[in-house]
Design a protein that fits this description.
With about 400 residues, this protein is α/β, with parallel strands linked by helices. The protein folds into two domains: about 10-180, 3-Layer(aba) Sandwich (Rossmann fold); about 185-390, Dehydroquinate synthase-like - alpha domain (Dehydroquinate synthase-like, alpha domain, Up-down Bundle), CATH 1.20.1090. Helix content is about 50%, strand content about 10%. The protein has 15 helices and eight strands. It has a six-stranded parallel sheet with strand order 1-8-5-4-2-3, sandwiched between helices. The chain has a two-stranded antiparallel ribbon with strand order 6-7. Helix 14 (about 355-365) packs across helix 15 (about 380-390). The termini are far apart. Bound molecules: 5,6-dihydroxy-NADP (NZQ) and zinc ion. The site of zinc ion has 6 residues, from helix 7.
Amino acid sequence: MQNFVYYAPTEVVFGKGTEEKTGEEVKKWGGSRVLIVYGGGSVKRSGLLQKVEASLDKEGIAWMEYGGVKPNPRLAFAQEGVRKALEFQADFLLAAGGGSAIDTAKAIAHGTANPKMDLWDIWTGKEALTKSLPVGVVLTISAAGSEMSDSAVLTNEAIGRKQGLSTPYNRVKFAVMNPELTATLPKYQVACGVVDILMHTLDRYFTHTKGNEMTDEIAEALLRIVVRNGRRAYEDPADYAAASELMWCGSLSHNGLTGLGAETDFAPHKLGHELSAKYDVAHGASLSAVWEAWARYVCPEEPERFARYAKKVWGIEEQDPVKAADAGIQATVEYFRSLDMPVSLGDLEGGVKTEEELLDMAKRCTGNDTFTVAKFKVLHQNDVLEIYRRANHR
Ligand code: NZQ
Ligand code: ZN
C-alpha cells in the first residue's frame, strides 16, 4: 500500500424527505445569502426547487435563482454566475441537480471569492486558489460523484477544451441525498450515471500497485453492487432500494475511497473528455464508447489484474488469465449494451469519425504529445490515437 491522505469532509444527509433540511444545513454552514444553481428545469418540474426555497425561507435565508446550466457545463455560464453572485452579495452557493450544476456552483464559488482572478486562470492552475465560498448540494442524479469529490469539470467553448480542476476547495460542505429525487430521471440518464459510477472505481482499480487488500475489496464490492442495482434502476428509476444503493455508491466511488493507497489511471476519463469537448457527448456515454478499446489495448500490461476483476466482479472462473481477462472485458461491454449505452465511437451521434478528427482529439488529449496520459499503461499521443481508432467502428 502506498502512502495516502484521506480527506472526505462533506456532511452527508441521506434519505427520504431530506431536502426539507436544506435550509437548516445552509444555516449551519454559515450561509445567509444563497445563489441557487440548477440546470435546464428538471428541478422546477419535479417541485424540488420550490421545496428547497421554502426551506430556506423558513430559516430566514435570502436566495436568488441561477438556472440554465447545461450538461458539460460551460465556463462562460459560470463566469456570468460569478457576476450574479457578486451583485447579489452571495455568501453561499447551493447546487440543486447533478454534476453539471454542482461543478458550476463550485466554479462560481471560486470566482466570487476571488473576483480579481480570471476563472480560466484558476482552472488551469495559473492562479493559485487560496479561498472559496462554501457550497452545498441537493443531489438529483447518481453519477458524477461531485457531491463528495475534490474535482469540478468545465468546458471552455472558446478553445474547445473540457478540463477538470482538483483542489480541496472543491469539497462541498454538505450533500442532501434523497434517492427518491432520482425517480424522475430518463432511463438514458440513469444508464449514463451507472457507467460513470462504475468508471470512477474502474479508473482507480486498474493499477499495478500490489497488496492493497482493503481498497481492492471495497472497489470490487462497489462494482458488484452498482452492476446489480444499475440494472434494477434502469428498469425502474422509481425503485427506491436500487436508487439508494446507486446514490451512495456514486458518492463513495469518487470521494477517493476506492483508490486509496494505489496509483490511479483515469485514461478512459481523459479520452472521454475529448469526445465531450468536441461533440458534446454525455459524460457517461463518452466513457462506455471508449472503454473496450482502452481495456483491450492496455490489458497485456497485466492480464492478471483484469482476470481478478473478471472473477471478483463478474464471477468468471476461467483459470487462464488472458482468457479470463478477455471474458471480463466482454462481460463489461455486454453490460453497457444491456443499458443501451454506446460501446464504440460509431454508436455515438454522428457515427464513425474521420482519421483527422481522431488525430485532433489525440493531440488535444496529450497537448500535442508534450505530456502523457495515465499510469496502468502510460499513453503517448500515438497510443491515444490507436485507442480512438480501435473504438471507431459500428
Ligand atoms: O438540467 P436538468 O433539467 O436538471 O436535467 C438534467 C440533465 O439534462 C437531468 N437530470 C438530473 N437530475 C434529474 C434530471 N432529469 C430528471 N430528473 C432528475 N432527478 O440529467 C441530465 C444530466 O445532468 P448532469 O448534471 O449533467 O449529470 P451528471 O451528474 O452526470 O454530471 C455530468 C457532468 O459532471 C462532470 C461530467 O464531466 C459532466 O460535465 N463530472 C464531474 C466530476 C466531478 N466534479 O467530480 C467527475 C466526473 O467524472 C465528471 O467528469
Ligand atoms: Zn466521471
